[in-house]
Amino acid sequence: MAADIRIAEEPVTSPTAQHCLERYYSELRKRFEEGFDPGKSILHTLDEFAPPNGCFLVIYADGAPVACGGFTPLGADAAYLKRMWVAPEARGLGVGRKLLSALEEKAQSLGYRFARLETHKALAEAQRLYRSSGYTEVEPFNDELYAHHWFEKALNRA
């Protein structure tokens, strides 16, 4: 892994966050057989990531942005994790697990009891990450157009 890993909470509107999201959207357009249009996703606006109930994180490796993701409220007790992405050049280095863990910790610190997310069938590596991180597959909790698998994890409160 890169020597200098830094996780920063940033506005989703920051140039760096937007750069990461554009790379993410571009990748999904290629990987999903039906393509990807963020305007058709259940998360229509990025405003939902704003504090105090939401959060957006960017991970930097040696100063370069290599991952992003955030959460929005889903009811009173669940954080809805969305837009998680790791740059291809940083995959296999534990960056995705660091991002997921940081999002869970932040959600827990805001009082959320559960983390929920969904993913597309083409993202097998994401499904493996979620399962190995303690997420269990649950019945659909929304009608996300691009989802085939829904997951939930109880956040432990110390």
Protein architecture, described:
The protein is an alpha+beta fold and 158 residues long. It has helices spanning 15-31, 95-109, 124-132, and strands spanning 5-9, 55-61, 64-74, 78-86, 114-119, 136-138, 149-154. It has a single domain, classed as Gcn5-related N-acetyltransferase (GNAT) (Aminopeptidase), CATH 3.40.630. It has a seven-stranded mixed β-sheet, sandwiched between helices. β2 (55-61) and β3 form a beta hairpin. The mean pLDDT is 94.
Overall form: globular
- Specify the helix fraction band: 25-40%
Mean pLDDT rating: 94
What gyration radius follows from the Cα positions, in whole Å? 15 Å
CATH topology: Aminopeptidase
- What is the count of structural domains? 1
Q: Hey, roughly how much beta strand do the residues contain?
A: 25-35%
Terminal Cα span: 30 Å
Instruction: Report strand order across the widest sheet.
Output: 1-2-3-4-5-7-6
Q: Report the oligomer.
A: single chain
CATH homology superfamily: Gcn5-related N-acetyltransferase (GNAT)
